[in-house]
Amino acid sequence: MAATSPTAGAGSPKKAGMPRRQAAVVPLDYSFMGLTSLSEMQQHDPVSGTKKSLAAAGLTTRSGDGLASPTGVDVATAAGTSPTKKRQTSVSLRVNNNKIFSLDDMQGALCAVFDYPEKLQWLDLSGNALESIPPDAFSAYPELFTLHLHGNLLSKYSDIDALAKWLPRLHSISLHGNPLEEKKHYRNYVIASFPHLKQLNFSSVTIGDRDQAETWTKIYKNARNGGKRRDDDL
User: SUPFAM superfamilies, alphabetically (predicted)?
Assistant: First the structure.
């Protein structure tokens, strides 16, 4: 397993800049459970938070019947609960400090534990053994606001590309403790890839950082995309 790094304070949904209403909902917490895949979440109860109930399975896409609000965040308990008594479903997930090595099962796994996985806003995958990000792994989560990936085994810029393609709203990302961090222009590459990024590795992205990344993009990243440079050259 890759080395881990503490995320106290900055690693909390309440302090990640999320809308207060969503940040106040307790995240599903599957940290430190020895999981080797995300699919294993379905077999366990989270340390905190409430996962999708079996009674609600297959009903979460319905609307207009008291099970879904227009926002897709508040749902009535699927069985035996008055539609007037609604609960807020979590939009945050901790799966840090496990032994997860692949995200190939991510979409199915999140559908199994979240009422509305497409509403996911905060995700902690730090301290696992991820070596790569599948190209479409994050395609279903356009509202993701904060993503922690530090302490894994990511080493290629293509992993950043796989994230940037699907996460237009990403506000904060942590990547320290990955081999990727050793690349000379890694910080510029990451900042340039996410136009709305405000935090990288729990440090603010300044106007100067943004200007530098944009200048670098014109010279280096565009050259890479044109096939003139290899991924390892940057």
Answer: L domain-like
DSSP annotation of 16? T
Q: Tell me the per-residue pLDDT of 18-47, one tens digit each, with 9 for 90 and over.
A: 555 455 578 999 999 999 999 999 999 999
Helices (H), 125-164: 157-164
175 burial via Cβ count (<10 Å: 0-12, 13-18, 19+): buried
User: Is residue 102 very low, low, confident or very high in pLDDT (cuts 50, 70, 90)?
Assistant: very high
* In the chain, where the domains are located: 23-38+90-233, 53-88
Which has the minimum average pLDDT: 16-25, 60-69, 85-94, 205-214?
60-69
* Residue 131 CB coordination number (10 Å): 16
Burial class (CB in 10 A: 0-12, 13-18, 19+), 167: buried
Higher pLDDT, 2 or 204: 204
Beta bridge mates, 28: 93
**Which tokens sit at 156?**
């290629």
Distance between CA atoms of residues 139 and 104, nearest Å:
12
pTM of the model: 0.78
Domain covering 23-38+90-233 in this structure, CATH number: 3.80.10.10
36, amino acid identity: T
Match 């995200």 to its residue by tokens: 103
